[in-house]
């Protein structure tokens, strides 16, 4: 299985790797800094550079059915390499850092939103510019101004974040840690990673996050929508 270096250090921008599989749409590596689409966070983009200097643009990153990570590449560039044997070649894997950092900032912000809205989360999604969470919130008990103020107050406190690991069994006896109703926590591998924002939020998450909340920068709640009787969607943008 592809070793996911971003799970322990989201600030790694590149790594040396070896191509372990060539698919119709991309390459699988023995290890990677590329985050694969999941949990509402997009997959990373970037480049894979071969030892001879030839490079491939990574346009998306996805998990395979067997747990590897596939780097989807520009197919024209892949075809241009002709019959070159890519299997077992060494590459330098480099992410688009600006895009990744924006994802990290917004993902961490959504954890803060989850902390200030007292309701279960029914869905969520983020991009480099905005993010949203859906809450099981039948009544209009929140407003844009108060939520914006609450988020920016937490961000300005610049609290550090940290990662913790617990076993699947430990998670099973602490169901209160799971705040998402529609997205299952990244369990099943024997242990689960938690994102801890001291005194603010603690929950399972496999995504990438900032080291300190101040990195998020000012944000604004742009919209609150009633999507159904038991579902309100709260959208956040960078201010």
Properties at a glance:
239 residues; alpha+beta; Elongation Factor Tu (Ef-tu), domain 3; Threonyl-tRNA Synthetase, Chain A, domain 2; 2 domains; 6-stranded antiparallel beta barrel; 4-stranded antiparallel sheet; 4 helices; elongated
Notes on the protein architecture:
The structure is a single chain. This protein is an alpha+beta fold. It has two domains: 3-95, Elongation Factor Tu (Ef-tu), domain 3 (Beta Barrel); 100-238, Threonyl-tRNA Synthetase, Chain A, domain 2 (2-Layer Sandwich), CATH 3.30.980.10. The protein is built from four helices and 15 strands. It has a six-stranded antiparallel β-barrel. A four-stranded antiparallel β-sheet has the order 9-10-15-14, covered by helices on one side. A three-stranded antiparallel β-sheet has the order 11-12-13. A hairpin with a 2-residue loop joins strand 14 and strand 15. The model has no long low-confidence stretch (mean pLDDT 92).
Topology:
Layout: E1 3-4, E2 14-22, E3 26-29, E4 31-32, E5 46-50, E6 55-63, E7 69-73, H1 75-80, E8 90-95, H2 97-116, E9 121-126, E10 130-135, H3 144-156, E11 161-167, H4 168-172, E12 191-197, E13 201-204, E14 219-228, E15 231-238
Helix pairs in contact: 2-3
What is the CATH homology-level superfamily of the largest domain? Threonyl-trna Synthetase, Chain A, domain 2
Low-confidence stretches: none
By CATH reckoning, the class of the largest domain would read: Alpha Beta
Number of helices: 4
Q: Which structural class matches the secondary elements?
A: alpha+beta
Q: Return the CATH architecture of the largest domain.
A: 2-Layer Sandwich
CATH third-tier fold name of the largest domain: Threonyl-tRNA Synthetase, Chain A, domain 2
What order do the SSEs take from the amino end to the carboxyl end, as H and E? Answer: EEEEEEEHEHEEHEHEEEE
Q: What portion of the residues fall into strands of 2 or more residues?
A: 35-45%
**Average pLDDT figure:** 92
Terminal CA distance? 39 Å
Largest sheet, order of strands side by side?
2-3-7-6-5-8
- Taking Cα atoms only, what radius of gyration do you get, to the nearest Å? 19 Å
Helix content: 10-25%
Tell me the domain tally: 2
What can be said about the biggest beta sheet?
Answer: 6 strands, antiparallel, barrel
**Backbone shape:** elongated
Number of strands: 15
